[in-house]
Design a protein that fits this description.
This protein is of the alpha/beta class. It is built from 26 helices and 25 strands. Strand 3 and strand 4 form a beta hairpin.
Length: 784
């Protein structure tokens, strides 16, 4: 509805009731910028809309008709369309599903199909529908800046990047009892920053309108990331998880991923969008293969010695068998990466054991936002293994000498490969920073991306590589989620990752939307090493993926290649994949060509003539134009905007209706005459529902869809209230009351959640009913 406030006419978009005041979300007609005012401190009065006829040229009238047509919306149509991106229909499907009431969505399209854009649609729609929305995006640290830039440039959303420094600044500017997450807005924080205990408690103390988790496969249980995000999602109204590799053969991890944001084990599963390139009509090809590298005798000796040492430690671990076995696993993996990496890790272990002190993990004084996953903590390698320390030190000195004497056959193979493609830009992935340093020493012209670089340095390297190309050496910790396809289509995996999902994630850095050439990928594997065990494990997990998601799934296409490599490397037979399959009821898969996709195509068709930005409805004068009746019947054509609104004036749906009053009007000889003729037929708007029966049918469908969406939202809020679990009585200590204080804080927090959810339920119930308004917008005089 239109109101007068602060001396000007504005559009009242929403009303948010509080105990002692009401938030009025208004937008000025002239600027369309939104403000939040407080009633009764701001005086508000209803504004009568006096729609007068104004004569314009036929060309201006046609442009106005196109603008009005673009403002038509359905109940589930996203309200904000990005203005600087080419949109294809399938990318709108998740946003339409979210607008229709879906509270948990899993975006699992293949790598490179624009999941960031799809999630951005959902964020933009949430902000457009509710100016007071609170949105949290949990993303890998390496893409935090990229998310902020994408939201700003493509959707016009000013997101706040939150890290330790930013959080301290926010806390300093607020009263002691006010959380820094209280204000409405869009916050972007790294996954590892949110898993910090203090940050997780602070962010989890609020009801989030929308929680988006990027690269969600890295937050599967049992991890600190999963615990933190699951706690925050407990009171999130909508949860969007994003991953191109939701299931990589680990059924328990996949189950934990699908349970994020679920109020109970019996709740409905998330809606999963899983589209392949073939599904969206992308004909580009990808070629991938395993290359077996023949290792030297010195490298084979290192592998045999390391196998004997690790077997001895595995069976004779003293004091801390879990820690010792983990250290052996790390050493074996790093030896498969490179001899230099193995030597570095062996020296670290020898140094820690020589000091005869177990190195505890040291927390930084000021915790970093993320952990560099491409380096090994000294504490991991310091766990004692053999019962005889002197014997273990002799083993380590022998292994270090063997590692120093062993050449790197993979490096020689890589150098030959690079000489064969001198004109191609190439990205080489490795798991460990030690290996990257060794490669950088042999390839000094290469750019580097690793966990030791700062956020700005990573962005600079990414921009340079996408601009000039060349050779890039990258670790998984740094390259996760980045776009590296600007000038590159060749990816090399220096060692075989133990998780097949990581293989897809690496290749996906260059196989993305915007890549115009066929992508080539090569994975180097060492023969006569423990790498045959790695690839057999990969084949086993890929077999489970195919059994669950089908052979056409992107990970499934690796199966035949991995089987062949397993036979070549170790003579392996077909693995048993009878266990570890995910349950079929963990997800609800959205079919290709679903109603959401059809609605997306309709939205794009309406906006094609105006570019990609939808023009908001503007209330003003009725525009009048005249045309000679040659192809049109004579009479008056009245364009009427039929709008379904809530009691707060929020538009749920809008449709244009054209009514024809048949007669033989004379040619208008003046503007005054045209206005007089047009004003005579404007009364048709009051009888639109009687004149055009389809309007009543349309309004009935809109009311039904709106009630269904509100019912789903109310169901979600009710389930979140039920998440409050009963706590056992707490008895204070004899001389201190810390337990009582903690219980009182938990009780106050639970009561705050309860009030917020009940307030939201009351608001949804109040806005479940719609009313229809029919207002004339345009008049065309067809004269003879």
């Amino acid at each position: 509805m239109d109101v007068w406030v602060r001396g000007r006419r504005s559009r009242l978009a929403a009303i948010v009731a509080h105990e002692d005041c009401c938030e009025l979300h208004v937008a000025a007609d002239a600027t369309r910028t939104r403000q939040i005012l407080l009633w009764p401190f701001d005086t508000v009065a209803g504004a009568h809309v006096d729609r007068r006829a104004r004569v314009v040229s036929l060309r201006a009238w046609m442009r106005a008709l196109a603008r009005e047509a673009a403002t038509q919306i359905d109940t589930a149509t996203p309200r904000a369309i990005p203005h600087d991106v080419k949109i294809v229909p399938y990318q709108l499907g998740p946003a339409i599903a979210a607008a229709a009431g879906a509270s948990r969505i899993l975006l699992a399209d293949e790598v490179g199909l624009g999941k960031t854009i799809q999630a951005g649609w959902i964020v933009a729609d949430a902000v457009e529908r509710d100016a007071g929305a609170r949105v949290l995006l949990a993303v890998p640290a390496s893409v935090k800046r990229q998310w902020v830039d994408e939201l700003s440039t493509r959707f016009g959303i000013a997101a706040t990047a939150v890290d330790a420094r930013r959080l301290r600044t926010m806390v300093a500017d607020l009263p002691v009892d006010v959380s820094p997450w209280t204000a409405p807005g869009v916050y972007v924080a790294s996954l590892d920053f949110l898993k910090r205990g203090d940050v997780a408690r602070s962010a989890g103390g609020h009801v989030w309108d929308l929680l988006v988790i990027d690269e969600a496969h890295t937050a599967a249980a049992p991890t600190a990331r999963h615990a933190a995000l699951a706690g925050i999602a407990t009171h999130a109204r909508r949860v969007i998880t994003i991953t191109a590799t939701p299931f990589s053969g680990n059924a328990a991890g996949f189950a934990s991923l699908t349970q994020i944001g679920s109020p109970s084990a019996a709740a409905a599963p998330p809606l999963m969008f899983r589209r392949s390139r073939a599904d969206v009509g992308d004909p580009r090809r990808r070629r991938h293969g395993f290359a077996t590298v023949r290792i030297s005798a010195a490298e084979a000796r290192l592998q045999r010695l390391l196998e004997r040492y690790s077997r001895a430690v595995w069976h004779e671990a003293a004091g801390d068998p879990g820690g010792a076995r983990l250290a052996m696993t790390i050493l074996r993996k790093r030896a498969l990466s490179s001899s230099a990496s193995a030597a570095q890790s062996l020296r670290r272990r020898l140094d820690s054991l020589a000091s005869r002190a177990h190195v505890p993990r040291q927390l930084a004084l000021f915790e970093r936002d993320e952990e560099a996953g491409d380096d090994v903590d000294a504490a991991v390698l310091s766990a004692p293994g053999l019962a005889d320390p002197e014997r273990e030190r002799r083993w380590l000195r022998t292994l270090i000498a063997a590692a120093d004497a062993a050449p790197d056959s993979k490096l020689a193979f890589l150098q030959r490969l690079l000489r064969r493609v001198p004109t191609e830009s190439v990205v080489v992935f490795t798991e460990y920073r030690d290996t990257l340093v060794r490669l950088a020493a042999a390839l000094p012209q290469a750019l580097q991306l690793h966990g030791g670089l700062g956020e700005a340095e990573r962005a600079e390297v990414q921009a340079r590589f996408n601009t000039v190309g060349g050779l890039l050496l990258a670790t998984d910790a740094a390259a996760e989620g980045l776009n590296l396809h600007g000038r590159c289509r060749v990816a090399v995996n220096y060692e075989l990752p133990w998780n097949p999902a990581r293989l897809e994630q690496r290749i996906g850095r260059v196989d993305r939307i915007g890549q115009t050439r066929a992508v080539h990928a090569l994975t180097l594997t060492a023969g006569d090493t423990a790498e045959d065990l790695v690839i057999r494990n990969m084949v086993r997990r890929l077999t489970r993926v195919v059994a669950a998601l089908g052979r056409e799934d992107r990970l499934g296409v690796f199966l035949d290649e991995a089987r062949m490599a397993a036979i070549v490397i170790g003579g392996a037979g077909p693995p048993d994949a009878s266990s570890g399959r995910p349950q079929n009821d963990l997800i609800e898969r959205a079919p290709i060509g679903s109603p959401a996709d059809e609605s997306a195509a309709a939205v794009l068709q309406r906006t094609a003539s105006l570019g990609s930005e939808v023009v908001r409805a503007r209330r003003g004068d009725v525009l009048v134009a005249a045309i000679r009746a040659t192809q049109l019947p004579a009479g008056f054509f009245v364009v009427i905007a039929c709008t379904a609104e809530t009691v707060d004036g929020a538009v749920a749906a809008k449709r244009l209706v054209v009514l024809h009053a048949g007669c033989r009007p004379a040619r208008p000889v003046s503007h005054a005459g045209a206005r007089a003729d047009a004003e005579g037929v404007l009364t048709l708007a009051a009888r639109t529902r009687d004149v055009d029966p389809s309007v009543e049918s349309w309004f009935g469908d809109v009311c039904r869809e709106h009630r269904e969406a509100m019912a789903m939202a109310i169901e979600r809020e009710t389930a979140l209230i039920g998440e409050q679990s009963a706590r056992a009585p707490v008895q204070s200590g004899l001389f201190e009351r810390r337990a009582i204080d903690a219980d009182e804080r938990d009780t106050a927090r639970a009561a705050r959640f309860d009030r917020e959810h009940r307030r939201r339920i009351a608001e949804l119930q109040r806005t479940s009913a719609l009313h229809l308004t029919c207002e004339p917008s345009l008049v065309l005089i067809s004269w003879r």
